[in-house]
Amino acid sequence: MKNGMMTHAKKLMMRMKIKNELARQCLGEIIGTFVLLLFGCSGAAQVKTGRDMKGQFLSANLSFAVGVMSAMYLCMGVSGAHLNPAVSLSFCVLGDLPWKKLLPYSVSQVLGAYLASAVVFVMYYDAIMSYGGGVLAVFGPNETASIFATYPTEGVSLQTNIFDQVSKQEN
Questions:
Q1: Which of 32, 100, 106, 131 has minimal CB crowding within 10 Å?
Q2: What is the pLDDT of residues 29-61, one digit of tens each?
Q3: pTM of the model
Q4: Rounded to 5 degrees, what are φ and ψ at 107?
């Protein structure tokens, strides 16, 4: 009886396996990026909407660290765990990733990021609305956009902002 169930399970797994290598890699990037941003943005949302009473800056940073680690473990063996279009571009420039895979990898990573952000927004919707007073704002004392993205500080030059974003991509 047990052998019969094992062979049935193996047959089922073989039928469900994605045979196209690029499709598996893209799915790996979607899942990896999703996990990374799910952990990271959830931590950022908790800290922001908790008004630093339910976590601090370090909590958000550790959330992203756990997200990166989890994403790496999940998809490193399938896709290389690039998790970011800039990383995929770097691998193409260095010759470690074929150029024809850059667009599918990048689209997959952006899709995973949007899916994770949507899940975090839905999970924290009430807290975000309460924190912002029912207004979704990018600037101001009760802005909530920084949960999902970084924005330049007022009074900083365009050149400094470009350097800031480029240097963050390299880290």
A1: 100
A2: 999 999 999 999 999 999 989 887 877 889 889
A3: 0.83
A4: -60, -40
Three-state secondary structure along the chain? CHHHHHHHHHHHHHHHCCCCHHHHHHHHHHHHHHHHHHHHHHHHHHHHHCCCCCCCHHHHHHHHHHHHHHHHHHHHHHHCCCCCHHHHHHHHHHCCCCHHHHHHHHHHHHHHHHHHHHHHHHHCHHHHHHHHCCCCCCCCCCCCHHHCCCCCCCCCCHHHHHHHHHHHHHC
The tens digit of pLDDT for each residue in 118-171 reads: 999 999 999 999 988 888 888 788 888 888 887 777 788 888 878 877 765 544
Place of tokens 């690039």: 82
**Chain-centre distance for alpha carbon 81:** 11
| Measured distance CA(34)–CA(87) in Å, rounded | 16
Contacts of 72 (CB under 8 A, 6+ apart): 32, 81, 83
CB 69 within 8 A of CB 118: no
> Could you give the percent of the chain with pLDDT greater than 70?
92
Q: Which of 148, 146, 28 is nearest to 83 (CA)?
A: 28
* Spatial CA neighbour of 37 closest among 116, 102, 103: 116
Give yes or no for a contact between 136 and 145, defined as CB atoms under 8 angstroms apart.
Answer: yes
